[in-house]
Amino acid sequence: MEHSFLSEQRRLLPYMGKWLLLALAVGLLSGSASAFFLFALELATGTRNAHRWLIALLPLAGFAVGWLYLRFGSSVEAGNNLLIDEIHDPKKVIPLRMAPLVLGGTVVSHLFGASVGREGTAVQMGGALADQLTHVFKLKMEDRRIVLMAGISAGFASVFGTPLAGAIFGLEVLAIGRLRYDALLACLAAAIAGDQVCLLWGHALGIHHTHYAIASVPALGLWPLAAVAIAGALFGLAGKLFADCTHALSGWMKRRVPYGPLRPLLGGSVVAAVVVAFGADRYIGLGIPTIQAAFTEPLAPWDFAGKLVFTVVSLGSGFKGGEVTPLFYIGATLGNALAPLLHLPFSLLAGVGFVAVFAGAANTPIASTLMAIELFGAEVGVYAAVGCVLAYLFSGHTGIYRAQRIGHAKPGKS
């Protein structure tokens, strides 16, 4: 028995050595790419804020990005869904051009005022760069799946500064209700490495992750928990609405406007016209200042709806970026609006909404709960978990990632 036990542990050593080295390589590539991306994004946002007239050029910027993808990126246009599909059903290595195309497309989108995020870009860069190791090390199909998952984890962790959430996101996002533990070591190591590499580059480039703080967390009690549960259900419905509307507009645009570059031109025209006419600048770009304000002061109760509409139009018409930071905005501002109705502190419900709308839209309640703990502190953990689980249950079986499969159906599915 003792000999068998020791033999089993010895067999773990080469396995661990192999995946730690691969994960470190993935983390180095993804973390470096994310740091450069964050630097470029900060530069683009600052330039747009200093030269507001750039917003008027958003339609032309959309046309240019659409044309580049039509000409050079048709094989990678599916973005995150392509990564998820390749993990489920591997066919061929992700073309390396996915990384520069999504990087350039996202920076241009932010420079000229589209309402998009950054997670999709970081995840796609991480996955595309990680998959190049398939050629270098002649990886088998099963190993390639794990490397792709590690790339997703490293990209997510490094762009938000949340290694634990990033590690679990790479496992949880693939299928509703199912985790793949065979990739746990690789995803965790890649997420930690990617986060640390991004931090090192961040110090050199003068960039840093945004910090949020929940000023007051009430003691656990029947009403605070019940109120967060009620809010969680509404957060889930908001996530479902966002995903359904984005998919519906994207499908409608593709049917009505067959020529790809015209879709972001039309969507960009709508966004630019509304921003210029009504001064709706708070609903474009990442919206970090508004997210931060949601933790400290009452905001207009329609802010969440404004961001939802602008992001649906931007992403649904073909602009590049991510969905997650807009979902953070929607969740934080919706939580801010619900706080006085539910007699909870602004900062608590803004923080729970921040992660819970994302949990519902992406079907990732565990990663979202860990993100809350990493961003806001362990004290908010129980409330975040309640909000994320209720949002997950009430968001249905749709989500922002069409390639996501159903591992175990949620309760209530017919």
UniProtKB/TrEMBL annotation:
This is Voltage-gated chloride channel protein. InterPro entries: Cl-channel_core, ClC, ClC-type_chloride_channel. Gene3D superfamilies: Clc chloride channel (1.10.3080.10). Pfam families: Voltage_CLC. It comes from Massilia cellulosiltytica. GO terms for molecular function: chloride transmembrane transporter activity. The chain crosses the membrane at residues 20-41, 53-70, 146-171, 183-202, 222-243, 264-284, 341-362, 382-401. GO terms for cellular component: membrane. It is found in: Membrane. It comes from the Bacteria. CDD domains: ClC_sycA_like. Keywords: Membrane, Transmembrane, Transmembrane helix. It is a multi-pass membrane protein.
